[in-house]
Design brief:
It contains 16 helices and 17 strands. It is α/β, with parallel strands linked by helices. Strand 9 and strand 10 form a beta hairpin.
Length: 520
């Protein structure tokens, strides 16, 4: 490239996501350093333009100004790129190596990284350590990403809302961006959705109702709030309805972490298993009563085992084959006049001789089951020991509530101290505190954590020793449901789901009902 005109592009990048030190890596700092180099260099470098990506990660090259720079290179406008250091161009080891060792040489592009002593035109000392520096920058990105995720998770566990927008039905509190408040315009829609589900409507049926009534979907509603006009309404998706009906945010529990990035280099998001969700209880106003929410959740599970067609029978989803453990389905007879029950596993695998039909008349079975439930409910209510048990449970429950509150306080203190440890580690890396201060604070916070964990373990052990067959609220609720059952000529599914766990059906037509309350 000797004798060639060097048309220079100055590339500047800053990203909080990469953990960049705001003072040393600031846009102004980079700009001043690069222009000072152009002023003092003895080489004839022709300044063309400045390309700035402020707030874009170095984990990939999907950045607007970088793309514009590449376009200008392809058009012959630029043949030299200068950055403050390698990390300003990018931190991804593979992509950086591809650019510096293949793409730039093939296109005749000179690259200079000032602080790393890199100049691809000359055999500068920094080139000998290029691979090491690229690997270090990549590791730094991975390590920083890991630390940021820990800090973010700790904040979420403390009940801070960190999403860019709240779930449908809520909005960010204008006085505190880490809290959410009810969106009063949407509250009636959420309540109606749960009411429809509580009364037996499936997610698909609810989606059809909302679509027919032209109720804006969450995405359309969000666009309307941003001033984006929509000439047509989107159709509601049953999957969206089901996700909303199972989202604890609507009962006041902040639910975060339902999705996560594939890794620190990818923008792709994947669903996380429910056990990895971050759920913090009682962080905001609930729209839906917890009892209604729990009943709807049970109905959704039961409705998955429904008969052929659109009709859901009273016992759909409750019946299980005692022999193989699979669901007993409900189907229409060939003449369409009656329903019959049959083991779904047998239907799918009958040619292999697995299980047996368990075939029986559904209506007769339903009547038998309802009579048996009524009989058992009467015995439960008439039990002379019921009131005494209830009073005992009231006392036990008071003790449980007190101890659980103490445990919650200790858990919060432990989470807070873990956050402090993460913070002082970052302060040590950035030079805000020295090693002596870091060690002293770390020992202090860890000692407190050990003490609080010991106290928590003692309280949890005391809780285990308390007889917790049923607390008083649960017994009172069961009694209420039982009385409701006895007052109905024929109960509905949302009442049954609160009383019955499952109904086992044997091949000899024996029926075994498993209740959600203790019979003794």
């Amino acid at each position: 490239m000797n004798g060639k005109t060097f048309n220079v592009a100055l590339y500047i990048r800053l990203s909080r996501e990469d953990g960049d030190n705001m003072e040393s890596e600031s846009i102004t700092n980079q700009r001043d350093l690069l222009h000072l180099f152009l002023e003092k260099t003895k080489e004839k470098l022709q300044y063309v333009d400045e390309y700035v990506d402020d707030g874009f990660t170095g984990s990939n090259f999907d950045r607007p100004s970088w793309k514009k720079l590449i376009t200008d290179i392809e058009h012959g406008k630029v043949n030299t790129i200068i950055t403050k250091d390698l990390s300003r161009m990018g931190r991804d080891y593979i992509s950086m190596g591809e650019y510096i060792e293949r793409i730039f040489p093939e296109r005749g592009i000179r690259y200079i990284a000032l602080n790393d002593d890199i100049d691809t035109l000359h055999e500068t000392p920094g080139l000998e350590f290029l691979q090491f520096k690229l690997m270090f920058n990549d590791y730094y990105l991975k390590d920083t990403s890991k630390k940021i995720r820990k800090v973010v998770r700790a904040k979420k566990e403390q009940g801070q809302f960190l999403g860019w927008k709240a779930v449908y039905g809520y909005k960010k509190d204008p006085n505190d961006k880490h809290k959410i408040i009810v969106d009063e315009e949407v509250r009636p829609i959420i309540k109606r959705m749960f009411d429809l589900a509580y009364n037996g409507k499936s997610p698909r049926q609810i989606a059809n109702i909302f679509s027919d009534e032209h109720i804006p979907t969450p995405s359309v509603y969000a666009n309307l709030n941003r001033g984006v006009k929509s000439t047509a309404y989107e159709l509601w998706c049953p999957r969206t309805i089901e996700e909303m009906l199972t989202n604890e945010t609507y009962i006041g529990n902040l639910t975060q972490g339902r999705r996560k990035k594939l890794n620190y280099k990818s923008k792709k998001e994947i669903r996380t298993p429910k056990e990895e969700w971050i759920i913090t209880e009682n962080t905001h106003e609930a729209i839906i009563d917890k009892k209604v929410f729990d009943t709807v959740g049970e109905l959704l599970k039961k409705n998955k085992n429904k008969p052929t067609g659109n009709n859901i029978q009273l016992l759909s989803g409750f019946m299980v084959c005692k022999e193989c453990g699979h669901a007993i389905g409900i189907n229409k007879s060939s003449d369409g006049k009656r329903y019959y029950c049959c083991c779904t596993y047998y239907i799918s695998h009958s040619k292999y001789g697995l299980c047996t039909p368990h075939s029986c008349n559904y209506k007769k079975l339903e009547n038998l089951v309802l009579e048996e439930i009524k009989k058992m409910c009467k015995e439960y209510v008439d039990s002379s020991s019921f009131s005494n048990k209830l009073e005992e449970e009231r006392k036990k429950n008071d003790i449980k509530i007190k101890k659980q509150k103490e445990i919650n306080v200790l858990d919060k203190r432990i989470r807070t101290n873990n956050s402090y440890i993460d913070k002082i580690y970052e302060d040590k890396l950035s030079g805000n505190i020295d090693m002596e201060m870091f060690n002293r604070l770390t020992i202090k916070y860890k000692d407190e954590i050990v003490s609080w964990k010991n106290q928590r373990d003692e309280l949890e052990e005391e809780l285990k020793n308390i007889d917790t067959e049923d607390d008083n609220k649960e017994k009172e609720e069961i009694l209420k449901k039982i009385n409701e059952y006895l007052s109905f000529e024929k109960p509905n599914r949302n009442l049954l789901v609160n009383l019955i766990d499952k109904i086992l059906i044997s091949e000899d037509k024996t029926v075994e009902i498993h209740y959600k309350f203790k019979l003794a």
